[in-house]
Amino acid sequence: MIERLLRPRFRVRGLMILVAAAAIVSATGVWVWRAYFSPADRWLRTIRDPDAMGRRWEFAGRALRGQDPAVRPEMAVEALVGALTSPHWNVRADAAAALGQGGKRAQAAIPALIAALRDRQSIVRAGAARSMGAILVDGGQGREAVIPALIAALNDRDDWVRWTTATELGVAVKPGDPEASDVVAALRSRLADTHPKVRVSACWSLTRLGRGRECLAVLIASLRESEKEARILAVQTLADAGTEAAEAIPALEAQLRKEDNPIIVKEAESALDSLRGEAESQSL
According to the 3-state scheme, what is the secondary structure of the chain? Predict the structure, then answer.
């Protein structure tokens, strides 16, 4: 009699054990799927992985451009904003730079990118500046916050950040924009920067804003800089300035005679052809 009473209890207990075991197996299966097979979770792990190197950039770009069926662009933006607070500087740097690939799709990241301009690593700050420029160029909203933040970043302690920021202001702002006068004033302050690439980048942006004549002395002096990147950018900027840079023709000719860098020689020849052609057109 006692054995008969105990049997149902053992059956219920056994059933409960089986149910619990099934639940554990199911939960383990879900975890394994998410950890090793789910494309979305694999993507998320990659952009957070400090050892993923080039894959972080590749994965982020594909998702931001809408080319990853497992990760929607808005999900990618949210995840990359989270990666901006990673303890690993290289993860933060890739997140800051990659967000620009989303263009206006990444405009929700602007507050986080502005905050990233205060990151302790210059590569993160430069990436944030570049991405904000890309977002605005693609028609993203938020100019009223981005432009003042970029103007402030022109005073960054790192020349790479100042150089990048000066360039992005010239890309994001056009003559006649409400912010143009403030940007012109800020860029003028960089014409006396201690780093040649910053000075020339400020000239490049001022030229795009119709103030190329103000930069001629700086650009002509930059043709003699030891840093080849500064010389290349100076030559290209003089070519872009058009007729305003006609008086720089003798300096370009002098530089061409002694220049030994083939890239700069080619750029200088092209610039001279352009400037001479425009000067002849003006004289007709």
Answer: CHHHHHHHHHHHHHHHHHHHHHHHHHHHHHHHHHHHHCHHHHHHHHHHCCCCCHHHHHHHHHHHCCCCCCCCHHHHHHHHHHHCCCCCHHHHHHHHHHHHHHHHHHHHHHHHHHHHCCCCCHHHHHHHHHHHHHHHHCCCCCHHHHHHHHHHHCCCCCHHHHHHHHHHHHHHCCCCCCCHHHHHHHHHHHHHCCCHHHHHHHHHHHHHCCCHHHHHHHHHHHCCCCCHHHHHHHHHHHHHHHHHHHHHHHHHHHHHHHCCCHHHHHHHHHHHHHHHHHHHHHHC
- Tell me what the mean pLDDT of segment 224-240 comes to: 92
The pLDDT tens digits of the residues spanning 132-170 come to: 999 999 999 999 999 999 999 999 999 999 999 999 999
Higher pLDDT residue, 15 or 28? Answer: 15
Tokens found for residue 117: 């301009």
Is pLDDT above 90 for 198?
A: yes
pTM across the whole model:
0.82
On average, the pLDDT of the chain sits at 88
**Distance between CA atoms of 156 and 194, rounded to whole angstroms?**
12
